[in-house]
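Bug #77: duplicate submission created two jobs. Keeping one. Sequence:
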Amino acid sequence: MLSRPNRLTRGAEYKAVVRRGQRCAGAHTVTYVVTSGEVRASRFGFIVSKQVGNAVVRNTIRRRLKAVCFEALPSVRPGSEIVIRALPTAATAAYGDLRDEVARCLARRAA
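Kept job's structure:
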């Protein structure tokens, strides 16, 4: 899983990435990416609202997205801040579909 230096933790950080970030939308997720010239670890944040499903479904989706980002971490540009918002269709999406969609957006915006 993603270690502490690789996670966004404050609401202000999420808000800044969503407002200033480049968007990449897919069928199940919307990815926001802000890249900076700083030399530090890439950081990820996840937004999974109640529209996606109950707590069990939301936590499952969040765990899947964390696993996908952990796999993609070596290919992401250092200093990037990424927020992934799950859409309601993510609840029924297969893991492979989520992985392909997020990997495509990360390759396009954060590689």
